[in-house]
TrEMBL record, chain A:
Belongs to the ATP12 family. Coiled coil: none annotated. Keywords: Chaperone, Membrane, Mitochondrion, Mitochondrion inner membrane, Transit peptide. It is found in: Mitochondrion inner membrane. Its main location: mitochondrion. Interacts with ATP5F1B; involved in the assembly of the F1 component of the mitochondrial ATP synthase (ATPase). Interacts with FMC1. Plays a role in the assembly of the F1 component of the mitochondrial ATP synthase (ATPase). The keyword Membrane applies. It is a peripheral membrane protein. One of its GO terms (biological process) is mitochondrial proton-transporting ATP synthase complex assembly. This is ATP synthase mitochondrial F1 complex assembly factor 2.
UniProtKB/TrEMBL annotation, chain B:
Belongs to the FMC1 family. Plays a role in the assembly/stability of the mitochondrial membrane ATP synthase (F(1)F(0) ATP synthase or Complex V). The lineage of its organism: Eukaryota, Metazoa, Chordata, Craniata, Vertebrata. It comes from the Eukaryota. This is Protein FMC1 homolog. One of its GO terms (cellular component) is mitochondrion. Pfam families: Complex1_LYR_2.
Length: 247, 110
């Protein structure tokens, strides 16, 4: 169901055995698969509670991105393990938006070079890898050693954080932009702008259509922000309950 | 490091968004866990414009990201409501578009 009436007055959080729980009046929140909704971080629980408390007459699930991410981490509906998640994430590098360049129109090619080259350079330097970019239809040729570096870097994240990382990559269509966010090198607004560079170029030329362009822009920002926040809150060792994050 | 601007500005923006969210719930925003958590975090770090340590940067980035989330969700909802939320017109309204009126049938439709 897309929407449902708000059936609760008060939202609160409490600490249980496995972590923090969300209470809707006297009921404990459950996941779609009827598991107890427990999160490892208090800050994350507070943010989820805020999502539930922000709902007015109807519960708009499609705006509750943090809740959705937690449900995915708890239920794992696609039934992927850590290795599969990491492979899915790194595979995106082969078609990474910021490595996939056009040759025409010249103005767009120039814009891509000016905006994307610095980020590629940052990633190459930060991770000590070769990435490059390509105008070929088959995309960039990523060396195996580069993939291996990213695979072992992502392996250092726990399962929850990885769900978040893979989510951000899928939204932004770029592993490199996502790492830029996770590493706090760029803001969400900047990452989304870079992800939508071609759209922004067309908008500058032809004008913006609010009900489509701004709509998509806001939604992508919301999702990327939620994913990034989720990753950071699930990775902070000081605030996290490790029992829940078993791989 | 990401270009974040002034932490005070981020905090103000964040509080504004929390106020919006609470207005929907009809509760004073200072009572909410989110407000208390944000204020406690900023106080604990005493985030000023002096870029001192890494923890400050991390907190500021987190606050800015959360601000982006709240703001984008609110803007997205507003756009959704304005352009996509109206649903279908009733038969009366449709008839009215072309200048007709539906017939009144005192006994209901046959």
């Amino acid at each position: 169901p897309l929407e449902r009436k708000r059936f609760y007055q008060n939202v609160s959080i409490s600490q249980g055995e496995g972590g923090f729980e969300i209470n809707l009046d006297h009921r404990k929140l459950k996941t779609p698969q009827a598991k107890l909704f427990t999160v490892p971080s208090e800050a994350l629980a507070i943010a989820v509670a805020t999502e539930w408390d922000s709902q007015k007459d109807t519960i708009k699930f499609y705006t509750m991105h943090l809740t959705t991410l937690c449900n995915t981490a708890l239920d794992n509906p696609t039934q992927r393990n850590k290795v599969q998640l990491i492979c899915a994430a790194v595979k995106f590098l082969e078609t990474d938006t910021i490595c996939y360049r056009v040759e025409e129109p010249a103005a767009l090619a120039e814009l891509q070079k000016n905006e994307w080259d610095p980020i590629v350079a940052w990633a190459e330097d930060r991770y000590n890898v070769a990435i490059g970019s390509s105008t070929s239809i088959t995309g960039p040729n990523i060396p195996a050693s580069t993939k291996d570096t990213f695979i072992s870097h992502l392996a250092s994240y726990n399962m929850w954080a990885l769900q978040g990382i893979e989510y951000v990559i899928t939204q932004l269509k770029s592993l490199i932009l996502s790492m830029g966010l996770i590493d706090r090198h760029i803001t969400v607004e900047k990452a989304v702008l870079l992800s939508r560079l071609e759209e922004e170029y067309q908008i500058q030329r032809w004008g913006s259509v609010e009900w489509a362009h701004d709509y998509d822009l806001c939604e992508l920002r919301a999702r990327a922000a939620a994913g990034t926040l989720f990753v950071h809150l699930c990775s902070e060792s000081s605030t996290v309950k490790h029992k829940l994050l078993q791989d | 490091m990401a270009a974040l601007g002034s932490p005070l500005r981020t905090l103000r923006g964040l509080l504004r968004e929390l106020r919006h969210a609470s207005a929907r719930a009809g509760r004073p925003y200072r009572d909410t866990p989110a407000y208390q958590h944000v204020m406690a975090a900023f106080r604990a770090h005493r985030v000023t414009s002096e870029k001192l340590c890494r923890a400050h940067q991390e907190l500021h980035f987190q606050a800015a990201t959360y601000l982006c989330l709240l703001r984008s969700v609110r803007e997205h909802l507003a756009l959704h409501h304005e352009y996509h939320g109206k649903g279908e017109r009733s038969p009366d309204e449709v008839a009215g578009l072309v200048g007709f009126r539906l017939p009144q049938q005192p006994g209901g439709k046959g």
